[in-house]
Amino acid sequence: MSPLNFITRTAPTGPVLEIAGDLDYAHAPQLHAQLPGLDLRPGQRLVIDLAGMEFCDSTGITALLAARNHAHAARADIALAAVPAHTLRVLRVVGLDQVFAIHPDSGAATRP
Amino acid sequence: MCRTGHRPDPHEPERGDTSDTAFAALLEDSAEELYESAPCGYLSTLMDGTVAKVNTTLLNWLGLERTAVVGRKRFTDLLTVGGRLYHETHLSPLLRMHGEINGIALEIRRPGGGRMPVLVSGAVKYGSTGEPLLTRLTVFDARERRAYEEELLRSRKAAEESARQARADRARLQDALAVLQQSLLPATLPPVPGVDTAAHYHTASPDRLGGDFYDVFPLDGTRFAFFLGDVCGKGPQAAALTSLTRYTLRAAALHDPDPVSALSTLNTVLHERYTGGDPRYCTAIFGVLDPDPVTGRVAVRLASGGHPPALVVRADGQADFLATPGGLLVGVLPDPHFTAAATTLGPGDNLLLYTDGLTEARTGEDRTALYGDQALRDFCAHRAGEPAPALVLALTGLLDELGEGLDDDTALLAFGVPTRPAPGPATKNPS
């Protein structure tokens, strides 16, 4: 088990939340807790950078969906960047590759 | 307190004989005074127990005059009944054998019928020829200590009671969880004419209500509906969602058994029920079995919402996933796309539905080494032609073998067409 760490930075498109560690049953609530603190304005794009994510289970995917709901409630968009191969496969199985904009890295995701 | 200190006493500017004398006076007056007013009781007894000498401290505790004690009472007369017994059975023999005792807990009698816990130590004084002369005893006030011990004892009893209560609560909770768990799954599957059915549910943890579900139920005289799925998360919230999902699908199917319609109804319910910061969703395959009593073949129509594809295992050894690409998780979007598929099962064919607890089971230390779709397909292909219950039994054995690697709940549901006509009304009366 790796602890979950967050780094938030600001790109021209809006906030970028870098997630490192395990996004699982034990740690996913920490992502939920991060959401209200994000400075997300209408028309911006919340980018979640998963380059450092080591593991993601169904509760982790729930947390990503909560982030999506949070972004939409702020009338903003959401995009995932650098999704690990295994998680990307799961996202395809459950059809979420059609729901999230998925970019190879945060550079591509923050291009206006 | 300490005379070896070098700081002068502020009230005694001149150090010297005067201060030393004053200090000696403060310190101690005489050995007699030390004996009489010591912070513990002293007494000496003759070898028959008669009190020969006693100090004021002990007399004060006893509330007795010296004249009433010395030469008139034995040590045991000062003790409670219990203390007297203990003296006879333990203290006295110990003294005779070892010549001393240490920290024996007794109770002395106090005026007005009260009692006072004490700790008694003693030593026998011997004469020049080794004959015992008298016994010297010290008596320490043990009231504080006794209170402390009683408090400890009370605390321990309370802790033991809490632990017992916790064990009972836990047992009751597990019973309740087991009952609830059963309510999430059908106790038995209804017999489907011309079809073998088999199911298995593997619980990853007895403490966590499962999030997988399945069911089979009749739609009309000939058709049966089935579903199998996996709700996100674990624990009570997941179980509540499982329950909602199960009964919604059942009701939806009776209204409109089209697989995509049933999943769409479920989607509407989940999406409206769980929005905002706590999204809840599930993956599911919903389908309808339509056995043809004439040919014995079973038409299957199903739809998937984000669920791993069903596996069709043909009697001839061919095993293929019944692809349902792009079907979305149920409950995520207000207007999702669900993917339909259809197949027909002939004699010896099996249709297997499963949850990803199986395919995502770890096969090594690394969390990325998973059992996988390919291994499942190969495993089932090797069992082509076996009846559905045998296939599920083999898969149950596989789940056991995966052991620790299987850290999620897993549900299995299989339908097979028997190679020989199965007993039942549909085959007995094929008109």
TrEMBL record, chain A:
<feature type="domain" description="STAS">
    <location>
        <begin position="16"/>
        <end position="112"/>
    </location>
</feature>
<dbReference type="InterPro" id="IPR003658">
    <property type="entry name" value="Anti-sigma_ant"/>
</dbReference>
<dbReference type="Pfam" id="PF13466">
    <property type="entry name" value="STAS_2"/>
</dbReference>
<comment type="similarity">
    <text>Belongs to the anti-sigma-factor antagonist family.</text>
</comment>
<protein>
    <recommendedName>
        <fullName>Anti-sigma factor antagonist</fullName>
    </recommendedName>
</protein>
<dbReference type="InterPro" id="IPR058548">
    <property type="entry name" value="MlaB-like_STAS"/>
</dbReference>
<dbReference type="InterPro" id="IPR036513">
    <property type="entry name" value="STAS_dom_sf"/>
</dbReference>
<dbReference type="InterPro" id="IPR002645">
    <property type="entry name" value="STAS_dom"/>
</dbReference>
From TrEMBL, chain B:
<dbReference type="InterPro" id="IPR052016">
    <property type="entry name" value="Bact_Sigma-Reg"/>
</dbReference>
<protein>
    <submittedName>
        <fullName>SpoIIE family protein phosphatase</fullName>
    </submittedName>
</protein>
<feature type="compositionally biased region" description="Basic and acidic residues">
    <location>
        <begin position="1"/>
        <end position="18"/>
    </location>
</feature>
<keyword id="KW-0378">Hydrolase</keyword>
<dbReference type="Pfam" id="PF13426">
    <property type="entry name" value="PAS_9"/>
</dbReference>
<dbReference type="InterPro" id="IPR000014">
    <property type="entry name" value="PAS"/>
</dbReference>
<dbReference type="Pfam" id="PF07228">
    <property type="entry name" value="SpoIIE"/>
</dbReference>
<keyword id="KW-0175">Coiled coil</keyword>
<dbReference type="InterPro" id="IPR035965">
    <property type="entry name" value="PAS-like_dom_sf"/>
</dbReference>
<dbReference type="InterPro" id="IPR001932">
    <property type="entry name" value="PPM-type_phosphatase-like_dom"/>
</dbReference>
<dbReference type="InterPro" id="IPR036457">
    <property type="entry name" value="PPM-type-like_dom_sf"/>
</dbReference>
<feature type="coiled-coil region">
    <location>
        <begin position="149"/>
        <end position="183"/>
    </location>
</feature>
<feature type="region of interest" description="Disordered">
    <location>
        <begin position="1"/>
        <end position="20"/>
    </location>
</feature>
<feature type="domain" description="PAS">
    <location>
        <begin position="27"/>
        <end position="79"/>
    </location>
</feature>
